[in-house]
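Table S2 (text version). Query chain:
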Amino acid sequence: MPRVSTPRRLSKRLSRHLAGTLRKHRHAPERGDGPMFFAKLLSRAVLLVAAITVLAPHSRAENGIFNLSEVDCLTLNMYWEARGEGEVGLRAVAHVTLNRVRSLLFPDSICDVVAQGGQNAQGGACQFSWWCDGLDDWPYDMRMWRASHTIARKVMLGRDSDPTSGALWYHADYVIPYWADDYIQTVQIGPHIFYR
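Corresponding C-alpha cell output:
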C-alpha cells in the first residue's frame, strides 16, 4: 500500500529533521555559525508546528468517522479507477467503495476495501485492478488528485447522492465478467457498468 502522509507521520518526519539539525549543528555557536544554526532550527520548528496545528484538524471529519488515511485510500481508488471519466465517474467509484464498507460482504474500512484480495498470494483477485498492477500508485496529475480528494471528502461526509443507486460492483464495458448475470444492473456511467 502506498504510504500516506498522515499528520502523525508528517510530524514524526519533521521531528526527525529537527533532531538532525540539532545534532548536526550542536557545536555551531562555538564555530561562529550561531545565526545560521538558529535560523535552520527555527524554520524546522515552524514546519513541525504547522504540521501538527494545520494538518491534524483535517484528519477527522466533523463527526469524527474517518481519518486522513481513509480519505487518501478513497482518493487513490477514485483517481486510478476513474480519473478520466469526469466528476460523475469519480463519484460513482467513491460510492461503490463506501457501499462496500457498509455491506457485510466486504471489509469495514475504506483502506481494507480498496486493498481487498491484494494480500492473498493464493490466487485471491484484487477487487480494484490498479491495486495489483505492480505499477507506482502515486498520482501524476495533481489537478485531478485534488479534484478527487475534494469529491472523496464530500462523499464521505454524506454530502453527495449516490449515482450508482447502491451498487457494490462494476466493470468496464469492454468485458463481460462471469458474475454479471448474478446481480442487477443499476446504471452505466462512462465505460463502467454498475450492479447491486
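Notes on Table S2: Strands lie at 169-172, 185-189, 192-195. Confidence is low (pLDDT under 50) at residues 1-7, 51-68.
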